[in-house]
Design a protein that fits this description.
Elements (H helix, E strand, L loop, with lengths): L13 E6 L8 H13 L4 E4 L4 H4 L9 H12 L3 E5 L7 H6 L26 H18 L5 E5 L11 H15 L2 H8 L26 H27 L7 E6 L7 H4 L5 E5 L10 H19 L4 E4 L18 H11 L4 E4 L26 H15 L12 E4 L2 H9 L10 H13 L5 E4 L10 E4 L9 H10 L3 E5 L21 H5 L1 E8 L6 E5 L11 E13 L3 E6 L8 E8 L2 E6 L1 E3 L1 H14 L14 E7 L3 E7 L5 E11 L5 E8 L4 E6 L1
Parallel strand pairs: 1-2, 1-8, 2-3, 3-4, 4-5, 5-6, 6-7, 9-10, 9-11, 11-12, 12-18
Antiparallel strand pairs: 13-15, 14-15, 14-16, 15-19, 16-17, 17-18, 20-21, 21-24, 22-23, 22-24
Helix pairs in contact: 5-8, 8-13, 10-14, 11-12, 14-17
Length: 683
């Protein structure tokens, strides 16, 4: 086993989920039945005690572990391993009553009452000490138990606290960063509206009752919240590692979540894991959902460039979406193995057994209130368990990508905060997805990285809307292109520096004008429903691109210095001006897409760029709409052919392959049923 193994004590593909027996302690027959059914469903791993603090420490300093001993050991006797949680995601009533400072203060400066979860102060010394104590007790009792394979630190960290303790810590962070108030006032441009700070104590976190319009302050507050969360995690991890450093740690990260910068947080834990809840079968093109979750899986894998764990997913329908739609036949296996195709070494669920009361009683689980195994969901889950056993051979194999798309959370914060150019919808995440999707449709493995990451492993780097340039990014782009890389930038890039100050002397700033061979003069924002077109310069049609594509929403008006126009605008007063350009720079090329174009443009354009950059798609064969191919590379190459549409799809295999789930030998024309997935190894 390589040193990459995520869970060295049990180096296997994991299958199981969140298990909350603390809600069922008065029903011993249910707990025994759970074990029988877990084995029947081919589960080998459960996440325990995530929200069990009140059961573990019913009174301050009084600990009750016997119930957990018995469950961990009973599971282990039956071949089921434990991912053990620290319980800081929700605290007991007694603690909030005795120490109100553990409760979070909202941006309007009100302290929350006890309730819900994920709502503690990030700074409170009392809370940190209570967490350290319970974590240490858990580690002392269980870190030597061979059943425990991973620490699940807390649950889905999120949110911010505006209490006085947090404000004081924020000011310390700023003093350390800026050293002088003059430097801070300049970086935040506070002479605007006479908001100049003359004393550190005047600095307050952003609030709807106070300051919200100083963008540099907003950015630094979010950075501070990330660092304070990282520090909180650090304390949690230290407590368990000081007892036994060998058990790895993880936190379960979230989809659509930009409250924290995971590129900072990732350093606090050994293993990346995340909770994926796709809205399958929602109206419109279903492949968009598939591409979106492919992108998130890739983002999670790219954090450490290692396999990751799918820590939560729903075996059926969730209960928090606007419409709780059931998965169509095939979708459970497809959705689960999509994660594996992108680098997951697990399929875990929320949750094993549905609770009887409170807000998640209708959230899909492996076991329904009915409590038996003769259900569609149970059969689907069992099918995934059996499939993972067959795929053990790809445990610890990785995805190797020659293309990367940049999705940067600090940039997301800044883009969302900026006033103009399109307050009715600037769509950063959607734009990144639209570019990513063009590679996904071709079956090209892609890393999803941020602006702080190394660009040298890639042949092609696509950087949509890099409005805020992180320190050092432009320099790395320059070197990347000089050394032969293909770089793609778009409209609304290189506008501000890392404290949200606009570049002077022309944009895209920080030297990118030279790399791209152009200057952006102004940007036109279009109303919904308004369009322009882009028209091909000579030679584009021979490359498989269309003569014309539709542009909408944002059209950047640029001047080329050394760049060559590939498309020009078709309409309006800027008809004839460059809309897509290429600049040869050093040994590489830098492209610029000036307008927000329909997806067909991305699809055709990136097909060409992939070829030009010398990247070979995972399956060198034409893929019908809705079908994509993922690849993991270990001792052999594993191809995942996935059909995300509710119709059959046919493709032609360029060789002979063994299909690992069925054992069939396949070659030539293969027809995939609706929501089908095949895992192939070349013969
Ligand atoms: C999150 C949480 C779980 C559960 C699920 C429901 O991912 O971590 O505890 O609430 O959502 O979808
Ligand atoms: Zn606080």
């Amino acid at each position: 086993m390589s040193n990459q193994a995520l869970t060295p004590r049990f180096p296997k593909m994991l299958h199981g989920g969140d298990y909350n027996p603390d809600q069922w302690l008065d029903c011993p027959e249910i707990l025994e039945e759970d074990i029988r059914l877990m084995k029947k469903a081919h589960c080998n791993c459960m996440s325990l005690a995530i929200f069990a603090w009140a059961t573990l420490e019913p009174e301050e300093g009084v600990y009750r572990f016997e119930w957990l001993d018995s469950i961990i050991n009973r599971l282990y006797e039956n071949g089921i391993y434990t991912i053990l949680a620290t319980p800081s995601g929700a605290r007991p009533q007694w603690m909030a009553q005795k120490y109100p400072e553990v409760l979070r203060v909202t941006q309007d400066r009100h302290r929350n009452l006890f309730g819900q979860r994920h709502n503690h102060c990030l700074t409170s010394p009392v809370y940190r000490e209570k967490v350290r104590q319970i974590n240490t007790k858990l580690a002392e009792r269980y870190a030597g138990n061979p059943a425990v394979i991973l620490w699940h630190i807390s649950n889905e960290y999120s949110g911010e606290c505006h209490c006085e303790l947090c404000q004081a810590a924020f000011r310390e962070y700023l003093k350390e960063k800026y050293k002088t108030l003059d430097a801070l006032n300049h970086a935040w441009w506070t002479h605007f509206w006479s908001h100049t700070y003359t004393d550190w104590s005047q600095i307050q976190s952003p609030s709807a009752r106070g300051e919200t319009l100083v963008h540099g302050l907003n950015l630094d507050w979010k950075r501070f919240t990330t660092l304070q969360t990282a520090d909180f995690i650090h304390n949690e991890v230290q407590a368990v590692k000081s007892v036994n450093p060998e058990i790895p740690t993880t936190i379960n990260m979230m989809m659509y979540f930009d409250g924290l910068d995971y590129h900072v947080i990732k350093n606090e834990v050994d293993v990346i894991s995340w909770d994926a809840y796709p809205l399958w079968h929602s109206p419109g093109d279903e492949t968009l959902v598939a591409a979106e979750f492919a992108m998130y899986h890739d983002l999670m894998r790219s954090l450490k460039h290692k396999p990751f764990l799918l820590m939560e997913s729903c075996p059926s329908a969730t209960n928090w979406q606007p419409v709780s739609k059931l998965k169509r036949p095939g979708m459970h296996l497809l959705s689960s193995l999509q994660a594996v195709a992108h680098g997951s070494d697990s399929v875990q669920y929320f949750q094993w057994r549905k609770g009887r009361g409170s807000s998640e009683k209708f959230h899909g689980s492996v076991l329904d209130h009915y409590g038996k195994s003769d259900t569609r969901v149970f059969r689907d889950v069992t099918q995934v368990g059996k499939a993972l056993e067959k795929l053990q051979c790809l445990y610890d194999s990785n995805v190797q990508a020659q293309a990367a798309v940049i999705f940067d959370v600090e940039n997301a914060w800044a883009v969302a905060d900026s006033q103009g150019p399109r307050n009715c919808g600037i769509k950063y995440r959607e734009t990144v997805l639209d570019h990513y999707r063009a590679l996904w449709e071709q079956g090209v493995s892609t890393d999803v990285i941020d602006m702080t990451c190394d660009l040298t492993p890639y042949r092609l780097v696509i950087a949509p809307m890099t409005y805020l340039l992180r320190d050092g990014f432009a320099k790395r782009v320059r070197e990347f292109v000089e050394n032969g890389g293909t770089f793609v930038s778009t409209y609304w890039s290189g506008i501000v520096n890392s404290t949200d100050l606009c570049y002077l002397g022309g944009m895209p700033g920080d030297g990118l004008m030279e790399v791209l061979g152009l200057r952006s003069e102004e940007i036109d924002s279009l109303y919904d429903g308004e369009h322009n077109t882009i028209q091909a310069a000579a030679g584009m049609a021979e490359n498989g691109l269309a003569q014309s594509y539709q542009a909408s929403e944002l059209c950047d008006l640029i001047h080329c210095s050394t760049a060559q126009p590939l498309y020009t605008y078709g309409e309006d007063f800027y008809a004839g001006r460059p809309a897509v350009t290429v600049n040869s720079f050093g040994a590489g090329k830098a492209y610029y897409i000036a307008s927000r174009n329909e997806h067909a443009f991305q699809r055709d354009f990136f097909e060409q760029l992939v070829k030009e950059a010398g990247i070979v798609p995972n399956l060198p064969a034409p893929l019908p709409h809705g079908v994509t191919v993922g690849r993991r590379i270990g001792d052999r190459e594993y191809l995942f052919i996935q059909n995300f549409v509710g119709e059959p799809r046919t493709l032609t295999l360029p060789g002979t392959y063994e299909e690992l789930l069925s054992g069939d030998i396949l070659s030539g024309e293969v027809t995939l049923t609706p929501y089908d997935i095949r895992v192939l190894v070349k013969q």
